[in-house]
Amino acid sequence: MDVARAFHRAVNDANLDALIALYDPHCIAEHVWIDSHDVVEGRDHVRERWEADFAQFRGALAGGHRMDVTRVAGIETGWGWVRSEWVQSVTAGNGASRDSVGYSHFWIEDGLIRRHRTIAKEVDRSVVAAVRAPSERRYPTRPLVGIGAVVFSDAGEVLIVKRRHEPLAGQWSLPGGMLELGETLEAGVVREIEEETGLIVTVGDVVEAFDRILLDDDGKVRYHFVLIDYVCRVRGGTLRAGSDVAEALFVRPDALGPYRLTGKAADVIERAMRITIPLQ
Length: 280
Known about the structure:
Helix content is 22%, strand content 42%. With 280 residues, the chain is an alpha+beta fold. The strands form three sheets. Strands 1, 2, 3, 4, 5, 6 and 7 form a seven-stranded mixed sheet that branches. A four-stranded mixed sheet has the order 11-8-13-12, sandwiched between helices. The chain has a three-stranded antiparallel sheet with strand order 10-9-14, with no helix packed on it. The longest helix has 14 residues, at 43-56. The two termini are 22 Å apart.
């Protein structure tokens, strides 16, 4: 599933080199591109098609992205298939918009895409907006599980991020996000840190589990998260701001004052500093 997520990140970034590096040299791609329903064999030919596609279309979603993934899951076939479901909005060079919903199947072997097929249909922009609406987080019917991390650098600095979206839009906090269906807690931590900051981490012990409940003006529960924070150490990747964050940076624990973290975040960092983290 990590390969499928990396695929969608590369597409949204229009990063041709990163995208093609995910394909096996002898891959087969079926019906993948917006204006082509061909079957293409071989990584070099796949590269040509993606290069032409990026030249013709640009993303029309927030942040210049073209695809929002709504679900990624494994398919029980025994062949390493992964399915991703998504919505897509692009604008062509002539200004015409193209909106679609669909899914992609990836046959992944040895960490590379051996076969890639896509099924999509064009829809009205309102359909895309409805699918993308994050209604399950606001005014939920039950608490939602979130994972977070106190990530330390080798120099002992702590990783913080500035949130792009509610419930903490514009505020600095610890990185993390929502656990996905069928995902273990530790796998969720690794995925969220990579998506938000570009870093690969080693996951250590649980620092704390706690509630975050936010009410609206009428006293109704707008958000209810059960959050589980882990202590982590960086073991790879390159720091960048991605997905749901506007900025990401490392700060010395004694220099966090100007970033106005919540009291709970500061307490979690203090607790994490007393936990030994595995080196590998």
